């Protein structure tokens, strides 16, 4: 039996729409992500468990894990009968890379079980394709960090999909999921089809400046560059209380704050644990909307998908 855990991720990280992503894990040691197990069997089956299992499609063939198995078998050229189990611990449509967690855990588990027939690059291509089926367009900013860990920049040139960018060890990433669902496909559909030249120039300056600041170890400059002019101005309308929660987080000591992926999860960066705890308190009191919501203080997860058993 093979069991793989795949962690939560922050798509975009504000400044890199579709091209920057970060994997995160709670500092209390809890596992914020999905697990997929694969066992030998005579015929294929998929069992689903976990806190958010009731939010999955009722037709098992609509589950992205089933589609992972199907595409994996097609790619390796043989049908591999297995019993798969998905532990759906990530809320669906959360902005925490929920579908990416299932896709990455399922494909890594299948590859491990089958004796590694696919390379890292081949697996990433499949992960992007499957994520694209759900969100309506191929983007790697959740699957790449979820699989590889850390802060990842999508390159998609010269046969390289993604490479890691050095982040800042002192940063805490406070993640607040309010408990409501936002569909990635819908949050993409409301974005403009075209942007003004001035916005394109500014976006290039901000993203280039952020990556430069990471490599030259200038944390303050990196924070200053972390501005989202591509998605946040348009998506805020989908996120009740986001603007106020952002103000409260910054007032409580956060250095930067933005939408995680397509939302509704908000992330805030702090450089001390005491600031992170104060920001967490503000978000628990003012951003959560129901019992399904939660706030976690996290660090960058530098490992990515890993074997638990
Ligand atoms: N195993 C799965 N995990 C999550 N969503 C799934 C899964 N299988 C199928 N789906 C379907 O995919 C859609 C999730 O799409 P969406 O991209 O909005 O969510 P998400 O990946 O959870 O979002 P985010 O990346 O913002 O966390 C839902 O309609 C859901 O029913
Ligand atoms: N880059 C994607 C991430 C979705 O989780 C988007 O913002 O639509």
Automatic annotation (TrEMBL):
<feature type="domain" description="GHMP kinase C-terminal">
    <location>
        <begin position="213"/>
        <end position="287"/>
    </location>
</feature>
<dbReference type="InterPro" id="IPR036554">
    <property type="entry name" value="GHMP_kinase_C_sf"/>
</dbReference>
<dbReference type="InterPro" id="IPR006204">
    <property type="entry name" value="GHMP_kinase_N_dom"/>
</dbReference>
<dbReference type="InterPro" id="IPR000870">
    <property type="entry name" value="Homoserine_kinase"/>
</dbReference>
<dbReference type="InterPro" id="IPR014721">
    <property type="entry name" value="Ribsml_uS5_D2-typ_fold_subgr"/>
</dbReference>
<keyword id="KW-0808">Transferase</keyword>
<comment type="function">
    <text>Catalyzes the ATP-dependent phosphorylation of L-homoserine to L-homoserine phosphate.</text>
</comment>
<dbReference type="InterPro" id="IPR013750">
    <property type="entry name" value="GHMP_kinase_C_dom"/>
</dbReference>
<feature type="domain" description="GHMP kinase N-terminal">
    <location>
        <begin position="63"/>
        <end position="150"/>
    </location>
</feature>
<comment type="similarity">
    <text>Belongs to the GHMP kinase family. Homoserine kinase subfamily.</text>
</comment>
<keyword id="KW-0791">Threonine biosynthesis</keyword>
<dbReference type="Pfam" id="PF08544">
    <property type="entry name" value="GHMP_kinases_C"/>
</dbReference>
<dbReference type="GO" id="GO:0004413">
    <property type="term" value="F:homoserine kinase activity"/>
</dbReference>
<keyword id="KW-0418">Kinase</keyword>
<keyword id="KW-0028">Amino-acid biosynthesis</keyword>
<feature type="binding site">
    <location>
        <begin position="91"/>
        <end position="101"/>
    </location>
    <ligand>
        <name>ATP</name>
    </ligand>
</feature>
<keyword id="KW-0067">ATP-binding</keyword>
<keyword id="KW-0547">Nucleotide-binding</keyword>
<dbReference type="InterPro" id="IPR020568">
    <property type="entry name" value="Ribosomal_Su5_D2-typ_SF"/>
</dbReference>
<comment type="pathway">
    <text>Amino-acid biosynthesis; L-threonine biosynthesis; L-threonine from L-aspartate: step 4/5.</text>
</comment>
<keyword id="KW-0963">Cytoplasm</keyword>
<protein>
    <recommendedName>
        <fullName>Homoserine kinase</fullName>
        <ecNumber>2.7.1.39</ecNumber>
    </recommendedName>
</protein>
<dbReference type="InterPro" id="IPR006203">
    <property type="entry name" value="GHMP_knse_ATP-bd_CS"/>
</dbReference>
<dbReference type="Pfam" id="PF00288">
    <property type="entry name" value="GHMP_kinases_N"/>
</dbReference>
């Amino acid at each position: 039996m093979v069991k793989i855990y795949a962690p939560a991720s922050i798509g975009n990280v504000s400044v890199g729409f579709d091209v920057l992503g970060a994997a995160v894990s709670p500092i209390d040691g809890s596992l914020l992500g999905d697990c997929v197990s694969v066992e030998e069997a005579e015929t294929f089956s998929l069992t689903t468990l976990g806190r958010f299992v009731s939010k999955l499609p009722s037709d098992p063939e609509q589950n992205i894990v089933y589609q992972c198995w199907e595409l994996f078998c097609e790619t390796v050229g043989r049908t591999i009968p297995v019993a798969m189990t998905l532990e759906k611990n990530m809320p669906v449509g959360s902005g925490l890379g929920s579908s990416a967690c299932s896709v990455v855990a399922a494909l890594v588990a299948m590859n491990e079980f089958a004796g590694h027939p696919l390379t890292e690059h081949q697996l990433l291509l499949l992960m992007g394709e499957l994520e694209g089926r759900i969100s309506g367009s191929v983007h790697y900013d959740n699957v790449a960090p979820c699989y590889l860990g850390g802060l990842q920049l999508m390159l998609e040139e010269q046969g390289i999909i993604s490479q890691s960018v050095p982040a800042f060890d002192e940063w805490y990433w406070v993640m607040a999921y309010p408990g409501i669902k936002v569909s990635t496909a819908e949050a993409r559909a409301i974005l403009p089809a075209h942007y003004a030249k001035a916005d394109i120039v500014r976006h290039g300056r901000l993203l280039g400046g952020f990556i430069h600041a990471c490599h030259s170890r200038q944390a303050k400059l990196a924070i200053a560059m972390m501005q989202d002019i591509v998605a946040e101005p348009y998506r805020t309308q989908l996120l009740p209380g986001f603007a106020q929660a952002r103000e409260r987080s910054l007032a409580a000591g956060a250095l930067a704050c933005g939408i995680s992926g397509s939302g509704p999860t908000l992330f805030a960066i702090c450089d001390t644990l005491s600031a992170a705890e104060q920001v967490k308190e503000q978000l628990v009191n003012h951003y959560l909307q129901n019992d399904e919501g939660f706030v976690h203080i996290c660090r960058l997860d530098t490992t990515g998908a890993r074997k638990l058993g």
